[in-house]
């Protein structure tokens, strides 16, 4: 396995198309917010109240496609696995 190679989350997000630049930009900002504190709630991870409200508005936006995110993540994971002959180590927190 190649050292230093990591899952390309930027590319994964770039493949999503919500037909709304505002929703797409909010998704990128949300991702950055939640990555900083993965175990925290949206309110805890957000630096400002407005940021948390923006995330909640994105989640209920009709253009926000949860299945599209899952599909993009699944396809990116499959591509990543193919680079390592179908084997990856995944950590799951239950």
Cα radius of gyration in angstroms: 15 Å
SSE pattern, N- to C-terminal: HHHHH
Main sheet attributes: strand count, strand direction, barrel closure: none
Strand content: under 5%
Characterization of this structure:
The structure is a single chain. The chain has 94 residues and is an all-alpha fold. The protein has one domain. 60% of the residues lie in helices and 0% in strands. The chain has 5 helices and no strands. The protein has helices at 9-14, 21-36, 42-45, 49-60, 66-83. The chain is globular, with a radius of gyration of 15 Å. It starts with 8 loop residues before the first helix and ends in an 11-residue tail after the last helix. The model has no long low-confidence stretch (mean pLDDT 81).
Properties at a glance:
globular, 5 helices, 94 residues, mainly alpha
Secondary structure elements and their pairing?
Layout: H1 9-14, H2 21-36, H3 42-45, H4 49-60, H5 66-83
Put the structure in a nutshell:
The chain has 94 residues and is mostly helical.
